Structure formats: C-alpha cells, structure tokens
Amino acid sequence: MAEKTFTLEELSQFDGQDGHKAYVAVEGVVYDVTGVGAWQAGKHHGNTAGHDLTDAIAQAPHGKAVLGSLPIVGKLA
C-alpha cells in the first residue's frame, strides 16, 4: 500500500471524536494514537488529535521516545 499524504485539513478529520480515528503528526510523520489509552476521545494533556504536535512533543517529558511504538499511517504534506 502506498504511503498516504495528509494535508493539515485532512489530518484535522482524525480527531478521535464521534468514532473517528485519532491521528497526530510529528516532524512530518502521521501516527495513529487511536488505541493509546492516554489519548481517550482524542485528547492528551491539553493536546488534541488531528493536529501537528511537533512543538508539543518537543516540550513533553517523554519527548519522541513514545513514537517508536505507534503505527505510522502516512506523512504530512
């Protein structure tokens, strides 16, 4: 399967609300956080799914360490 490229508008549809999957982008890579317990209803420590969280993850205590276990679903345009 070819890698999907998301625009910011397309990414915003994956907000984890109303049955939608929850995707976040970090440094141009789009990750699926749908099954992550800490991302219930598409929210995690003031962040919401469907956005580019590059700046937020740089400031998070865990940094990018948590990304390695997440499924990659595409890239951000």
UniProtKB/TrEMBL annotation:
<dbReference type="InterPro" id="IPR001199">
    <property type="entry name" value="Cyt_B5-like_heme/steroid-bd"/>
</dbReference>
<dbReference type="Pfam" id="PF00173">
    <property type="entry name" value="Cyt-b5"/>
</dbReference>
<feature type="domain" description="Cytochrome b5 heme-binding">
    <location>
        <begin position="6"/>
        <end position="77"/>
    </location>
</feature>
<dbReference type="InterPro" id="IPR036400">
    <property type="entry name" value="Cyt_B5-like_heme/steroid_sf"/>
</dbReference>
<protein>
    <submittedName>
        <fullName>Cytochrome B5</fullName>
    </submittedName>
</protein>
